[in-house]
Design goal:
Elements: E1 2-8, E2 13-16, E3 23-25, H1 52-61, E4 65-68, E5 92-94, E6 99-101, H2 107-117, E7 120-125, H3 132-143, H4 149-156, E8 167-170, H5 185-202, E9 207-210, H6 223-232, E10 238-245, H7 252-255, H8 258-279, E11 287-295, H9 324-339, E12 344-349, E13 359-361, E14 367-369, H10 373-382, E15 386-388, E16 391-393, E17 396-399, E18 403-406, E19 408-415, E20 420-427, E21 434-440, E22 446-453, E23 473-474, E24 479-481, E25 484-489, E26 493-500
Parallel strand pairs: 1-21, 3-4, 3-12, 4-7, 7-8, 8-9, 9-10, 10-11, 11-12
Antiparallel strand pairs: 1-16, 2-15, 5-6, 13-14, 15-19, 17-18, 19-20, 20-26, 21-25, 22-23, 22-26, 24-25
Helix pairs in contact: 3-4, 3-5, 5-6, 6-8, 8-9, 9-10
Bound molecules: alpha-L-arabinofuranose.
Alpha-L-arabinofuranose binds next to loops.
Length: about 500
């Protein structure tokens, strides 16, 4: 057994725990909307056709913001198709996912769902096939109280109060050749700047996200950010980052270290944004909206859209089934997002239901939690106050993709009010239990609870029949000596340790 040590001090603060770090994403893709959040035939469907069991699990997951309606979908979307009387709504071809969309759910329905689920909406505008005017029309429809063409149209459609949406994405992954209306960084940067400038004429308090690269593997990564931010700097608040990870070639060791890539990605985007800031003599800083991240087995058949004359409504697409190891990676990615809370100001787990998702549904039937549900729910519900940067000393292991990587990684949060410190840690070893020593410098050594999420078979997968064999369980190995708390982390595990002030 080997030993890792986290030294924690409430003075080692990175920044606040941001609720928006725990966002998710609902795209018109596969069964995320239709038979996912919306399924009028389901026994739990409410008066709007929304599954109440999905709403309940969304709340349990602790989701803060939800990005909508895409994703690649948004780059061909006409928002007007999804408002007004249902019988007048057209069915359209969705070219991004080779599907048909009956437009049963649109902006007003989504906003009703967001309200019921208690989440903040994050709306994306189409800058693929559309431009400044259509973005303004949608903003007018959503945020202007009344007295203009589109605001009165919303009121006539039953939404008396404005939706008051603060966060807006200026398109999606516009660097990707797969994107409908894909652009060069100069074309996109100019369009995004003009769209942002005009949107602020309607509502100066918007928070606007400009598209960064769709992954750090894009050949244009870095240059894209530099050019787009040079064009848009004064008009936007955030640049997006997207990253998906999957286990390649049975190389579990490298896969478990995926957060090394996310850390570097965040730091590279931050450096580029700050370089543009310096070059342009700007005073404000641009922060990151990491608005798509997850494990996604992109090469599997589930990710192949229909072809030819087949344009189905809500096909089974991107329905990855996650393992315990996938959940440990998701936990480690949450650790990466949290430790960069100074510059990552929002993030969205892609996606929420059925499509690379923590929540799965059967059409008209059962609902169940995937493995990745657990680390997200624990982090979202237990991270409070400020993020602390632990000084980590840990043994390393060798990976084919990332070289030497610490076996144990983690982060902590500190809630000044209650005095509680919560440590989130992963053990990436496939075979060895690791001892974690937590050295807390403020005397918060009283163990409130320690849990571990692991299984003898790291490739165990939850199903509709069994989503409870592997859940976070109490870890009863903790012992305290002086101010050091030690506990054993099982191989391939996600762990949460809650510490309180010693009782007087
Ligand atoms: O989340 C699935 C897809 O991944 C999104 O539509 C797109 O933005 C990204 O490439």
């Amino acid at each position: 057994m080997r030993t890792a040590r986290f030294t924690l001090d409430p003075a080692f603060q990175v920044g606040p725990v941001r609720r928006r770090t725990f966002g998710s994403f609902v795209e018109h893709l596969g069964r995320c909307v239709y038979t996912g959040i919306h399924d009028p035939q389901h026994p739990s469907a409410d008066e709007d056709g929304f599954r109440e069991d999905v709403i309940a699990l969304t709340r349990e997951l602790g989701v803060s913001t939800v990005r909508y309606p895409g994703g690649n979908f948004v780059s061909g979307y006409r928002w007007e198709d999804g408002v007004g009387p249902q019988e007048d709504r057209p069915t359209r071809l969705d070219l991004a996912w080779h599907s048909s969309d009956p437009n049963t759910v649109g902006v007003d329905e989504f906003m009703r769902w967001a309200h019921k689920a208690g989440v903040e909406p994050m709306m994306a505008v189409n800058l693929g096939t559309r431009g400044v005017q259509e973005a303004l029309d949608l903003l007018e429809y959503c945020n202007v109280p009344s007295g203009s063409h589109f605001s009165d149209y919303r009121v006539a459609n039953g939404a008396t109060d404005p939706h008051r949406i603060t966060m807006w994405c200026l398109g999606n992954e516009m660097d990707g050749p797969w994107q409908i209306g894909h652009k060069t960084p100069y074309e996109y940067g100019r369009l995004a700047a003009e769209t942002a400038r005009a949107m602020r004429l309607i509502d100066p308090d918007l928070e606007l996200v400009v598209c960064g690269s769709s992954s750090s593997d894009m050949p244009t990564f870095g240059e894209w950010e530099r050019i787009v931010l040079t064009e848009t700097y004064e008009h936007v608040d955030y640049i997006s980052a997207h990253a998906y990870y999957w286990e390649e070639d049975d190389d579990l060791a490298s896969f478990l270290a995926s957060a090394v890539n996310m850390d570097a990605f965040i730091e590279d985007v931050t450096a580029t944004a700050d370089q543009v800031r310096a070059a342009g003599r700007h005073s404000k800083r641009i922060n990151i909206s990491f608005d798509e991240w997850n494990v996604w087995y992109q090469k599997r058949a589930e990710s192949k859209p229909p072809t030819g004359d087949d344009w189905p409504v809500a096909p089974v697409l991107l329905e990855d089934r996650y393992t315990v190891a996938d959940a440990v990676v998701v936990g480690s990615l949450l650790i990466s997002l949290l430790r960069h809370t100074d510059r990552v100001h929002a993030a969205s787990l892609a996606q929420l239901v059925n499509v690379i998702a923590p929540i799965m549904t059967e059409p008209g039937g059962r609902i169940w939690k995937q493995t990745i549900f657990h680390p997200f729910a624990q982090a979202s519900n237990l991270a409070k106050g400020v993020v602390l940067r632990p000084v980590i000393s840990a043994p390393t292991y060798d990976t084919a993709r990332f070289g030497e990587v610490p076996v144990v990684d983690g982060v902590a949060t500190y809630d000044e009010e209650s005095g509680e410190i919560t440590v989130f840690a992963v053990n990436r070893s496939e075979t060895e239990v690791q001892t974690l020593e937590i050295d807390v410098r403020n005397g918060a050594t009283r163990l409130i609870e320690a849990t571990s999420y692991s299984h003898d078979d790291p490739r165990w997968t939850a199903t509709a029949d069994d989503d409870t064999t592997v859940v976070p369980r109490v870890n009863d190995t903790a012992t305290t000596t002086g101010r050091i708390l030690s506990l054993e982390l099982p191989p391939v595990s996600w762990n949460v340790v809650r510490l309180g002030r010693a009782e007087a």
